[in-house]
Design a protein that fits this description.
The longest helix has 27 residues, at 75-101. It contains five helices and two strands; from the N terminus they run H-H-H-E-E-H-H. By secondary structure, the protein is mainly alpha-helical. The chain has helices at 8-21, 34-41, 45-57, 75-101, 106-119; strands at 61-64, 68-71. Strand 1 (61-64) and strand 2 (68-71) form a beta hairpin. The protein has a two-stranded antiparallel ribbon.
């Protein structure tokens, strides 16, 4: 699961995000501890903690003192909105710019997407 070229703590945060979006961890559900992540990925607990703390800083997770980290209410919705914004910036805007360069209009682009969606 560990990808080369991307910090491990970022990958841990993304995995937790994915699990929240997919419903593995609903609101108010406890997520694995930093020690559990560290043992599973065979990394330093501080590295795992850095990934978890990214999500705490974003308000996706919160700490119950002495118990662990839990998914915040509304976390899934915030994550989906964040991912939609990233999708627009990373994929949609470059796609539209390239389509414009190639003279592909909205209707033709829509047909291309629909065709690809059927065959995918």
């Amino acid at each position: 699961m560990i990808e080369e070229g991307k910090p491990i703590f970022v990958q841990i945060a993304e995995q937790i995000e994915n699990d929240i979006i997919e419903g593995v961890y609903p609101p108010e559900t406890q997520v694995p501890s930093t020690n559990e992540f560290a043992a599973f990925y065979r990394i330093n607990p501080a590295t795992a903690g850095k990934g978890v703390n990214l999500l705490v800083d974003e308000g996706v997770l919160y700490k119950k003192r002495g118990i662990g980290m839990f998914v915040s209410d509304g976390a899934r919705e915030r994550l989906v909105a964040k991912r939609r914004d990233a999708f627009r910036d990373e994929y949609l805007r470059p796609l539209l710019a390239e389509a414009a360069k190639l003279g592909i209009g909205p209707d033709q682009l829509s047909r291309m997407i629909q065709t690809e969606g059927v065959s995918a």
